[in-house]
Design brief:
Layout (H helix, E strand, L loop, with lengths): L1 H15 L6 H23 L15 H24 L7 H13 L2 H4 L5 H11 L7 H31 L8
Helix pairs in contact: 1-2, 1-7, 2-6, 3-4, 3-7, 6-7
């Protein structure tokens, strides 16, 4: 789970920081791992439709897209705080686990993909692409927005902290 979050977070962080050099490698590894994991499950359980291991939106397209955006936004925001902020505490891992646990409650609406590779790998193995665009567009836009928003808050917070350190007294 940690590597899963790390790789997708690397993609979003690269997009926000405009450091796209490593993004193709992140995407390739994610898709390869998801496809191989899905193929392994096919070998173990067979290729029956009721054994589909991917994510399927069951809400309306708009409802599922909005849910995917929001839950991935929350997850990316938490990943940025837990993984990149110097002020993180000892409970940073708990924050990530709690965020994923809360996000899983939205499984009945959108499939709770939170990562396009999590949906694309099984879709390719099972050749079943119903609503796949939702699980591509929602998580990508949610993750990039979550990383960008965290950067804005961290930058704003740093500016406030620096300005509070300025001596504003009238005495020399």
């Amino acid at each position: 789970m940690g590597m899963y979050l790390l790789l997708f977070a690397g993609f979003a962080a690269g997009a926000v920081n405009k450091d796209m050099e490593e993004v193709p490698a992140y995407i390739t590894v994610q898709l390869l791992a998801s496809t191989l994991a899905s193929a392994t499950l096919v070998i173990i359980f067979g290729r029956e439709k009721d054994h589909f291991v991917g994510t399927l939106p069951t809400g309306s397209n708009m409802q599922s897209l909005e849910v995917e955006f929001i839950i991935t936004f929350y997850l990316m925001f938490a990943v940025c705080g837990a993984g990149t902020d110097d002020r993180k505490g000892e409970l940073a891992g708990l924050t990530l686990g709690a965020t994923v646990t809360i996000n899983i409650h939205y499984l009945p609406i959108s499939g709770a993909s939170m990562n396009p590779a999590r949906s694309l790998g099984p879709a390719m193995v099972f050749n079943y692409y119903k609503g796949i665009w939702i699980n591509i567009v929602g998580p990508i836009t949610g993750a990039i927005t979550g990383a960008w928003f965290y950067d804005v808050i961290r930058l704003t917070d740093n500016l406030v902290m620096e300005s509070s350190e300025i001596n504003l007294s009238w005495e020399d």
